[in-house]
Amino acid sequence: MLRRFLPSVVEHSVHDLIVVDNGSDDGSLTFLRSHYPAVRIIQLASNVGYSGGYNEGLAQLQGSYEFYLLLNSDMSVTPAWDLKMVDFLVEHPKMAVAQPKIRSINQEGYFDYAGGAGGFLDSFGYPYCRGRILHTLEEDRGQYQESINLDWASGACFCVRASCFHGFGGFDPMFFAHMEEIDLCWRLRSAGWEIGVNPEVAVFHLGGGTLRKSNPRKTYLNFRNSLFMLYKNLSCIAFIRVFVMRMVLDFGALIHIAFSNGLQHAWAIHKAYVHFLKNYRKLPTSPRNPAKFISSKQAHVKSIILAYYLQRKTRFGDFD
Q1: Same domain, yes or no, for 240 and 285?
Q2: How far is residue 240 from each of residues 39, 234, 254, 264, measured CA to CA in Å?
Q3: Is the pLDDT of residue 212 over 80?
């Protein structure tokens, strides 16, 4: 990934470039030091996941920068992408986090699964994006050039105020990987901060560079962390209401995945629920959002699952 994508980042970046090495053992450090000696390296002792890796890496930078741009290692960027993203947050003082448009490398001209043109949550905590509804990707024809407030910004390319990141405790390390950025964005929204998208900047994402969709662990982390996120951010009564419906919908997902992806993925959903029920008391629970609905009113969808499979709404533009 470094060989393929780091040259683009070095060529097109204006601000300081730092690589956090998450306990790699594949020769990445040797490659960086021999080919990119000017790139600063923060070396971690072990792989503590996306959440812990960024938390530990950025803790070493605290006080040195006003903004952080978090970028996955399987992404290519466009000229001055970082300068434009930082300027965008400077121009929007109420905004804590922003993402660019994220396009797919594998499907040229289409949005990427991990974020599209900005993310939202339905009433049961399922994420969807402008440009990506569940498994359907849209072609980028300029239909999402409007800069709007989001429920969440993609961690694949995540521009955040340093004061907000550290002030809200960064990513929850219990998540390890997947949905930790949605959880942080939810906490920021509950405190009155805005989450946004800068559609004037485009980056390109390979996807699955670290953990492929075919890996059952990805299924496990997505389902477990979604439950973690709901428990952390909803009031007790609201969580119980949502959790009951989630069990019904996730059981349907388990049956569907068993036939489409295999029994290992279905078992991963089962394990996600078991792990949540054993560990939810360890999660920090304040402040919680007393609202019944967890998504913004700007693009509220009751159930993206039912809308997609029953009403055949496969594009963001299908929703009012």
Answers
A1: yes
A2: 48, 9, 20, 28
A3: no
| Same domain (yes/no): 124, 174 | yes
Residues 8 and 119 in one domain: yes
Q: What is the pLDDT of residues 125-184, one digit of tens each?
A: 999 999 999 989 999 999 999 999 999 999 999 999 999 999 999 999 999 999 999 999
Beta-sheet strands, E only, within the chain:
18-22, 40-44, 67-71, 75-76, 95-104, 119-121, 127-129, 132-133, 136-137, 157-161, 194-205
Number of helices (H), then strands (E), belonging to the chain: the values are 10, 11
Q: Which of 262, 168, 252 is nearest to 216 (CA)?
A: 262
Asked whether residue 232 falls in the same domain as residue 182, the answer is no
Residue 211 is assigned to a structural domain of this protein? no
Looking at residue 225, its amino acid is N
Backbone angles phi, psi at 18, to 5 degrees: -130, 135
> What is the DSSP code string of 200-236?
EEEEEE---SSS-TTSHHHHHHHHHHHHHHHHHHB-H
Residues 100 and 192 in one domain: yes
Residue 65 domain boundaries: 2-13+49-205
Looking at the fold, whether 72 and 157 belong to one and the same domain comes out as yes
Question: Where does 125-170 show beta strands of DSSP type E?
Answer: 127-129, 132-133, 136-137, 157-161
Q: What is the rounded CA–CA span in Å between residue 43 and residue 52? A: 13
222 and 192 in a single domain? The answer is: no
Please, which pLDDT band fits residue 294 given cuts at 50, 70 and 90?
confident
From the centroid of its chain, how far is CA 95? 17
Q: How many domains does the chain have?
A: 2
Joined tokens for residue 185: 């964005």
The DSSP 8-state label assigned to residue 138 in this structure reads P
Nearest-angstrom CA–CA distance, 74 and 97: 21
Q: Is residue 173 part of a domain?
A: yes
Q: Which amino acid is at 277?
A: L
Rg (CA), the chain: 19
Domain boundary among 170, 205, 240: 205
